[in-house]
Design brief:
Layout (H helix, E strand, L loop, with lengths): L12 E5 L22 E2 L2 E2 L2 H10 L4 E4 L5 H10 L1 H4 L7 E3 L10 H6 L1 H6 L4 E5 L2 E3 L3 H11 L3 H4 L11 E7 L12 E7 L16 E9 H11 L6 H6 L4 E14 L3 H7 L6 H12 L5 H4 L2 H6 L41 H5 L15 E6 L8 E3 L3 H12 L4 H4 L24 E2 L5 E2 L4 E2 L4 E3 L2 E2 L4 E2 L4 E3 L2 E2 L4 E2 L4 E3 L2 E2 L4 E2 L4 E3 L2 E2 L4 E2 L4 E3 L2 E2 L9 H20 L1
Parallel strand pairs: 1-4, 1-6, 4-5, 8-12, 14-17, 15-18, 16-19, 17-20, 18-21, 19-22, 20-23, 21-24, 22-25, 23-26, 24-27, 25-28, 26-29, 27-30
Antiparallel strand pairs: 2-3, 6-11, 7-13, 8-11, 9-10, 9-11, 10-12
Helix pairs in contact: 1-6
Length: 550
């Protein structure tokens, strides 16, 4: 790893959630054998990027969480993939708790006993598809300054636990937007800035209070239902200045206090971290009564659980009616509203003083700037993003070109790892290409703005433009490929012309195939068995007989 820097320990744990990859149907049709976390982004396994983010942040207590069915594939990769085996020590751990499957919600994962036992401190949650060039140490500094409670950071073990949280959002409407990329709807309120100027690389100017958060799709459904967007008076009274963002996306980077585990445990209807946990937490800061009704106040104060007589059928705390916890976008029960207690007032002049009464810990939003020179921050959860981000990373100067001091943390050692495999009379634009180890390129080929995985073969006369080839791909003689993604060990027959296509791993594309905007996949496993065909025929015969009798 080119940027394995020595960082002071943060005391935080990191959980990297390795999901099923349902948005990559061409390449994760069998998510147990080919999990999304191992798909290559610019020739590195996807999960390498969040792991690298943790090490650059100073977090070494890292746990990958995946379903038990995918544990073998990820374990093998951790032990054999050269990029993952080169990670510094201590190496990441892998947790595959029973009860976790490909459909388990992110908040439900934190409710599993094995995961609750695993988490012993404040923690950061990351998706396996995160590519973040931003230094995580700056995020932690911003969180500690604006959201952390000093008594809690000192770990004196006494309630109330009042560390806040922080989430990250980024602009999707960049210079090269991706069509159809998911976005979220958030409302933020400005924070008071210190009178002393901040440093140039400080993230504090980009922090704000999060007051509302929901997926854009939920917003559209709500507006269709209400024929408008309802804004609560309590929100406006508490925060007269609001900023609404509709083109930003939740990066699924969450710095969370450990007490949030109890909040999730007590509210069983919370399924996801982003929409449910963060969404409801943001609302408790301005909806009076919600702090207590969701059980958060009792948890913050460190009180013991309610007596059995006070328990409800839903858990150990008095909750709102069932519809309240469906999601922030769908529930609109009315509560009396009034301004919440300010977190800064809780801390008071004496930073070590315990608050006399529990206040709602703040949930902050870091809005990543969209400037051209801003560090790269994107989720890579679709094939279009996989191609776009891989090609963007391929343009980074290599460590050999830029030097180890100023090279990007995502720079490779060399742009062309195996020059001996490239024959003469070829055209490779090295400034925007990335060619991995043991790639064989024959004469009269042209490779422009492309990423070529290890052990690929590019036959004579082939032309590649803006393509991503995973390991072991064979491109036949005279092929013309434009904006294509080719899965591992696939082969494109000679004379084929493909544009904007995805090719499944191990698939053979017949010679002289011409196709555009297609997902080329094997039909293996889709054929009906003889028994299924016979049952279908018997059903048709019975239907014909019924029609004749009628």
């Amino acid at each position: 790893m080119p940027h394995a820097v020595s960082m002071p320990a943060t005391g935080l744990q990191a959980l990297i959630l390795c999901g099923p990859g349902s948005s990559f149907p061409t390449f994760t049709s069998n998510p147990d054998e080919n999990p999304k976390a191992l798909l290559p982004i610019a020739n590195r396994p996807m999960v390498w990027y969040p792991i690298d983010f943790c090490y650059r942040t100073g977090i070494t207590n890292i746990t990958l969480i995946c379903p038990p069915s995918a544990a073998d594939a990820i374990t093998t990769a951790l032990n054999t993939n050269p990029f993952l085996t080169a990670l510094p020590h201590p190496r990441p751990d892998l947790a595959a708790p029973h009860g976790l499957d490909q459909n388990t919600g992110t908040a439900e994962i934190l409710r599993l006993p094995e995961i609750r036992e695993l988490i012993t401190s404040d923690f950061i949650v990351l998706p396996c598809d995160l590519v973040c060039e931003l230094g995580g140490d700056k995020l932690l500094q911003a969180w500690m300054v604006k959201a952390a409670s000093l008594p809690d950071l000192l770990s004196d073990g006494e309630p109330p636990y009042c560390n806040g949280g922080l989430g990250v959002w980024y602009e999707t409407k960049t210079a090269t937007p991706i069509k159809g990329e998911e976005t979220d709807f958030i409302i933020t309120a400005p924070m008071s800035m210190p009178p002393v100027p901040t440093s140039k690389d400080s993230l504090l100017p980009h922090l704000s209070y999060l007051t509302y958060s929901m997926p854009k799709d939920s917003l559209i459904d709500l507006m269709d239902q209400k024929k408008s967007f309802p804004i609560r008076h309590g929100l406006l009274r508490t925060h007269p200045k609001l900023r609404m963002l509709t083109t930003h996306r939740d990066a699924h980077i969450y710095i969370l206090p450990r007490w949030i585990l109890d909040f999730i445990q007590e509210n069983e209807r919370l399924e996801t971290i982003g929409e449910d946990v963060i969404g409801w937490w943001a609302k408790t800061n301005w909806e009076t009564g919600l702090f207590g009704k969701l059980g958060m106040k009792k948890i913050i104060e460190g009180r013991s659980k309610s007596q059995e007589a006070d328990k409800t059928a839903r858990g150990n705390v008095a909750l709102p009616d069932e519809s309240l916890l469906d999601s922030p976008g769908r529930a609109r029960e009315s509560y009396e509203t009034s301004p919440p207690a300010e977190f800064e007032k809780v801390q008071g002049d004496d930073l070590l003083a315990k608050p006399k009464e529990a206040a709602v810990p703040p949930i902050l939003a870091y809005i990543h700037p969209a400037s051209v020179d801003a560090p790269l921050l994107r989720r890579v959860d679709t094939a279009q993003l996989l191609l776009a981000i891989s090609l963007q990373l391929a343009k980074l100067p290599s460590i050999e070109e830029a030097g180890p001091e100023i090279a990007s943390p995502f720079a490779h050692s060399k742009k062309l790892a195996y020059p001996e495999g490239v024959k003469s009379r070829t055209t490779i634009t090295r400034q925007d290409c990335l060619i991995a180890e043991n790639v064989m390129v024959e004469e009269k080929t042209s490779i422009k703005e492309s990423v070529i995985g290890a052990n690929c073969q590019i036959k004579e006369g082939a032309k590649l433009f803006q393509c991503l080839l995973m390991d072991g791909v064979v491109v036949g003689k005279g092929c013309k490929l434009t904006r294509c993604i080719l899965g591992k060990r696939s082969e494109v027959g000679e004379g084929s012309t493909l544009t904007d296509c995805e090719v499944q791993e191990n698939l053979l594309v017949e010679p002289r195939t011409e196709d555009k905007d297609s997902k080329l996949m094997s039909s293996s496993g889709l054929e009906a068995s003889e028994q299924e065909m016979q049952e279908a025929l018997d059903g048709m015969d019975e239907g014909d007989e019924s029609a004749m009798l009628g």
